[in-house]
Design a protein that fits this description.
Elements lengths: L4 E6 L6 H14 L7 E6 L5 H7 L6 E5 L16 H6 L4 E4 L2 H6 L4 H13 L3 E6 L3 H5 L3 H10 L13 E5 L13 H18 L2 H6 L2 E4 L7 H5 L6 E4 L6 H12 L4
Parallel strand pairs: 1-2, 1-8, 2-3, 3-4, 4-5, 5-6, 6-7, 7-8
Helix pairs in contact: 1-2, 1-11, 7-8
Bound molecules: phosphoenolpyruvate.
């Protein structure tokens, strides 16, 4: 089967409402030619989600995502947002397990698993991020770490919810550093992830699962990364803040024949 490319922008803590609306509008226009071939996503800050939702037309290849969420549906959790509220706002999905959440906010595998299961049960698409640090890579522990992150979550996903889970492999040393994994480095881990999914789920689910690469993806390196057989697009940080550059990344995916 041939998987569609999914290229999502993680806007992190950038852009007020007006700037988010303008960026979303520019992305929608600039990616129109690739719309049938590439699923394009945008993940603004919480306060801009409603404006971006208003700006982005409802289309199966245009996704609006939250950057986080809390697993409980309601209660005494000051400052948190539930997945049901993201859904209520019109979100299509949510990014979970990002290395910034793991490192800065000390989110554990167990907590991320709770979030993933709750978000999937709320009918959101989940972009589940995994990745090793430089120290872990250099000490030969890449798969031990990434495989452990996968094993903490995927076995718990019910068969009927699996199609909603995207895995994003994001080596921590490549995020926001300008240092990208080589296509060979990225492909190696993507293949390991897909093989593990086949063991945990089944061969069909593994063949269908979208696995994005993230870590300093830019217009000038996207084509070679997306040409790898197990890389199904990207989760893009810095380069997603510029609509023209982001559109070039999407065009690079659209140009690849699978
Ligand atoms: C990210 O935030 O997920 C990311 C990959 O960022 P950048 O593209 O800036 O490295």
């Amino acid at each position: 089967m041939s998987r569609k490319f999914h290229v999502y922008g993680n806007w992190k803590l950038h852009n007020n409402i007006a700037a988010s609306r303008a960026l979303a509008d520019a992305v929608v226009s600039a990616t129109a030619d690739s719309r049938d071939r590439v699923v394009t996503g945008m993940a603004p800050v919480f306060t801009s989600l409603a404006a971006v939702r208003e700006t982005v037309p409802a289309h199966p290849h245009l996704m609006v995502l939250g950057q986080n969420g809390y697993p409980a549906p309601k209660g005494a959790f000051t400052g948190e947002i539930s997945f049901a509220l993201l859904k209520d706002l019109g979100c299509d999905g949510v990014i979970l397990g990002h290395s910034e959440r793991r490192q800065i906010f000390h989110e554990t595998d167990a907590f991320i698993n709770e979030k993933v299961q709750a978000a999937l049960a709320t009918n959101l698409q989940v972009v589940f991020c995994v990745g090793e640090t430089l120290e872990e890579r250099e000490s030969g522990r890449t798969w031990e770490v990434v495989g452990g992150q996968i094993d903490a979550v995927l076995p718990h996903v019910a068969a009927d919810l699996r199609a909603r889970l995207i895995v994003a492999y994001e080596p921590v040393w490549a995020i926001g550093t300008g240092r990208t994994a080589t296509p060979a480095q990225a492909q190696e881990v993507h293949k390991q992830i897909r093989d593990r999914i086949a063991q945990l789920w089944d061969a069909t689910a593994a063949a269908e699962c979208i696995i994005q690469y993230g870590g300093s993806v830019k217009a000038d390196n996207a084509a070679e990364l997306f040409a790898c057989p197990d890389i199904d697009g990207g989760l893009v940080g810095g380069a997603a803040l510029d609509a023209a550059g982001f559109a070039k990344i999407i065009a690079a995916a659209a140009a690849i024949q699978r």
